[in-house]
# Entry
Amino acid sequence: MYWKEHYKTRTKKAYSGYSTVYNNESRLDFRELLNHMETFTEVYKKCKEDHPAIREAKCFDAQFPQIMLDIMPNDLFCGRADILPLGMNAQYINSEWGFAMNFDWFREKMADMSVPDGDRERLRELYIFWNNHTSTKRFLAEMDPVDKIYMVTGGVSEGGSLDLENQPHGATALQRVAGIFLDYEKLLDYGLSGLYKLTEEKQKEHPDNDPNFYEGIRMELKTIMRTLTWYADRAAGLCRTETDKQRKNDLEEMERICRKLTTERPESFREAIQLVIIYTLMDGAGNGGVWMITLLCTI
# Structure
């Protein structure tokens, strides 16, 4: 984990020199990115006072499939994502969790005279709003001032490097979520639609529990299903223009699996891998080794 991660789209150019191309070219140019971040912010503002589970689900939905990347020529599974300078997840950028902004990226763009004045003003408005609304900033605002003297509380929360040299204190306030262990066995046993029905059953069994919690889960499951449908449509579009027979078969299989997973549980190793890739990518856990070991032990 890096103390500081500059925003850069996961493109072939950005990863030149590596034997593997990690992601396709970003689908969003600067203006599209700016529009997306404004839309995301408006969704947050409108649901700011909602129950946390509902607010998170609505903002989660506002991110996908916008941040997802296209299918690469040799992909047998779909599921690639860009890290945008503003977003939300369990662990996003700069080691931050929840609602996060890359303040460095925004400052650099606002100072860039090649960016039109109107766009720089739009960036400034986003910067001013999120300066007090990121999860890290809100966490630090609640920290007891007495505790702060023992902690290094700058760095990632300000969008800068975390300088630990010559620090008299031994503790660091890292605002992040890590070590998330998801129940992949349940995911593969039930599938997305099965998990959706399970939340309905659990809600009926426990009527005293907050219904917003169950509804938030269902809303996010719908977003994952919608993203799989988006990828199925992308695969179908590529298939229509593909001339290589084997590649055409691969794309047809990718489309079939993505559509199936929106309504059924996985029944093959390939279907299980596809579901785990999409689910892990979107939930932000990022424990690749953990989920692969779990997958191999489960199937």
User: Anything to note?
Assistant: The chain is about 55% helix and 5% strand. The chain has two domains: 30-172, 184-298.
